User: What shape does this take?
Amino acid sequence: MAREMLINVAQEEECRIAIMENGKLDELYIERAASDRYVGNIYKGKISNIEPSIQACFIDFGVGQNGFLHISDVQSSYFPRDNQKERVGRKRPRRDRPPIQECFKRGQEVIVQVIKEGIGTKGPTLTTYLSIPGRYLVLMPGMNRTGVSRKVDEEARDKMRDVLRELEPPKDMGFIVRTAGMDRSKRDLQRDMNYLVRLWKNIEKSMQSDASPLELYRESDLVIRTIRDVFNADISRILCDSEETVKKVKNFLRIALPRTRCRLIAYDGAEPLFNKFGLEEKIEQIQSRHVPLKSGGSLVIDQTEALVAIDVNSGKNRSHSDAETTAFKINQEAAEEISRQLRLRDLGGVIIIDFIDMLQEKHRRGIERLIRELVTKDRAKTKILRISQFGIVEMTRQRMRPSFEGNNFMDCPHCKGSGMIKTPESMSIEIIRRIQSIIENKKIQSIEVVISAEVAFYLQNRKRTALHDLEKKWDKTVVLRSNSDFCNDEVHLTSLDNRGSEVKCNY
Assistant: This one.
């Protein structure tokens, strides 16, 4: 399995990082210099409002939009009459938590971390369970005990727990060994722990400031974050097209992974880095609804506000003599592609996958196992249910970053994101109705209608008689004007009296 990391920073406004596996785009990370990123940052905020009805409060943490803090993300140190520390990986159940109005009051200062970017009108999601990642460990202040990444088998986890105990972590500080920290020497882990403890002490000093809201800790930029979180022994080389970024990565690797510095290569080819590897076309295809499969089948991916629906189609694939085998093979290929698309598009929330129906139980269970195996390489938290009797898999996935769609696209100003506008016929009928509703007003002498060229053509050719009848019946004038900048849905009606002054009406 050949894996490569390509870092494209030739355009200073945008940083793009692609992970290639066997020549195929497997992961993509994009960050704009102009866009503010808050996930991972720690702030001292002030509670602006408490909502007992939803057991949440809204916190001003200094970014112009209040953050959302739910009672399930409140650490026990904020609970009244409760000094018991929670253990790493074992949050207190929702039923054992006091009401949020007993934990906070308006104007109170609280230390929070952003765990999810705001979407649309929704503000960022916050938590008081702070976590500061290092290369091999994650520091969780205020927590008890230590833990190991759940992506590691139980035997290896027990071994690493013993190593962590020997390091004697400071009191009231929890630590989790990351996947990258497995099989690392005790010395490497100790160095990472010492760095995180020093960092936390600096943050604690900043907390003493009277200023509020206040930023206490800022996450690293995309390049350092990705190398810290994604780079491992499987990645054979890192290609970067920016000399400045190469120097920055070298400095980081010299401290964190000195033995891997030789894998960093400065790309100086005449052809742009992503073009050299054929990535530009692949990136353009990421937002397509239809994703073709090698076998001839396809995926159809639709995103809504509430969930993501993925439909698996067999297409023209008839490579096997019976329908059951064909369905199973296509579903296998689809499961592999779906796991890849989830990472590339960073699809989050509730995800519904409609596989091709399979009659045999062994095939259904086989697809379930395959999906679970494939998502183990995904850094996002996922939960997968069994295939239902309708051949549907329900799953949830944590969103790791702002979506590719949100970063690169905006809603169409004409269709408002629906993808559809009214036909000239529908719009013409609606305009006639609106004219009928106001033309009987005695103050009105004439009505001016500004519309798109297509709708104007339809009205003047198909609805000329209807307009003439209205003018004749009420002895008033209807004037049509076309505007080439208008789409079919746009219309502007102006009512005028006999002096040419506008008459206000409810259109």
The chain has four domains: 3-36+234-281, 42-217, 288-408, 424-496. The chain has a mean pLDDT of 87.
